[in-house]
Every structure is written in structure tokens, then in C-alpha cells.
Here is the input.
Amino acid sequence: MSGASGAVVVPLTAEHAEQVLAIYRAGIDEGDATFETGPPTWEEFDAAKLPGHRFAALDEAGAVLGWVAASRVSDRCAYAGVVEHSVYVHPAARGRGVASALLGALVDSTERAGIWTVQSGIFPENTASLAVHRRAGFRVIGTRERIGRHRDVWRDVVLVERRSPAVT
Here is the structure.
């Protein structure tokens, strides 16, 4: 599928591993994407992400511009329709609609699978991520204050979610 970004969104596979983890590393290094201090190995990433709900955005040469992936929030059956996601875009590809295209693919796949809630925690300083999520139909649930230490500083996290109007 192709989006307004000009990128082609495809299922994320091991073929994309090196570029996906490099983009993840860039987000970690910038400091406003995650509490993580380093990217996982591909094996760890692959095991943690739901296979039907992870996508890569590729440019015309096949380079990865960004990725989105979802994980289960709980093994409890009551939460079977709730996932947590991450979306990362290569610094050089930002502002081109890549994240919007990836979120669109994620929403489509989760709704087809009967998932009713897609959520994420976003640092409040990451205003670009908050804005793209708002445009994709996510709403702010609240702020988890001083939820964790990151680089020796207490950080807040804004909890956002998208409730599917299609899954009842």
C-alpha cells in the first residue's frame, strides 16, 4: 500500500532488521522516544512484536523510512483486544507523512483482527509524535507523572489510545 508520503508500506520482516534497528537506535539517541537505552537484537524484537501488526515504510529504492509494530499488553484474556505500539521514522524522512502512513496500516490491521484498543506512551516533549497520533484518531487519556527515570531525570509519559469504532 502506498501513502501520501510516497512511501510503500509493507509487512516488516527480517529483511528489514538492520535498518529497523538503526532507526530505533536513532530514536533512542535523540532522547525523547523511549526509556530504552539500546535497541534489542532482531531476535528479541521479532519475539516481542505481533507478526500481523508490524510494518515498514520503504522508499522507491527499498530503504526503510520508518516502522510501526505492536505488542500485546497482557496475556489475560480480558485484554486480548488491546495492544501497545511504537512508531519510529528515520530522522531524514520526518515531516513527509511516513508516520501517518504507518499508523494507518496499523489501524487497518488491528481492526481486521478485532483489536479494539491501540495505545502508546509518549514523552510530552515529543510533540511531533503527539500531533501525528492525534491526526490518526488517538486521544490523550492522561499523563503518568514521574513514571520512570531516563538519563537521571524523572520523565512523564502521555498515554494515548485509539478505540476502534469498527470493533464492538
The chain has one domain: 8-163. The mean pLDDT is 95. Helices lie at 17-30, 42-48, 98-112, 127-135.
